[in-house]
Amino acid sequence: MTVVSSGIVTSAAFLKVHLWKPTTDIWGVWNNNYFKLAKGVWHEGQFIKGIDWIDWALLLDLPAVSIPACIASLKKRKEVKEKLLTEGK
After folding, report:
1. Where are the beta strands (DSSP E) in 1-89?
2. Which among 31, 81, 50 has a CA at the least distance from the CA of 89?
């Protein structure tokens, strides 16, 4: 159950960090969200434009894959649990 819920929590945290802002400011230029980085930001005297289509694809791929996988594993867990209960184990 912990592994199942961690997929959802990881997806939510990943989206929060990249679409809004990290909780801690330890990432240098990456403390900016994807929207700012797509436009470009100044960091330590350098202009950095650090986001392109592949970054967006990877950002959206994690929740698109992990959340359905979590749901599928919950359904499978329920099936196995019901099967064990009907067998009397």
Report:
1. 41-43, 46-48
2. 81
Q: Is 48 helix (H, G, I), strand (E, B) or coil?
A: strand
Instruction: Report which DSSP code applies to 20.
Output: T
pLDDT above 90 (res 23): no
d(CA 88, CA 82): 10
- The structure's pTM equals 0.61
Taking alpha carbons only, the member of 75, 61, 72, 78 closest to residue 10 is: 61
CA angle 6, 4, 35 (to 5 degrees): 45
Structure letter (DSSP) for residue 46: E
Nearest Cα neighbor of 50 from 60, 39, 64 is 39
Q: How far apart are CA 40 and CA 24, in angstroms?
A: 21
Per the prediction, the chain carries an average pLDDT of 84
Centre a 10 Å sphere on the Cβ of residue 77 and count the other Cβ atoms it contains: 12
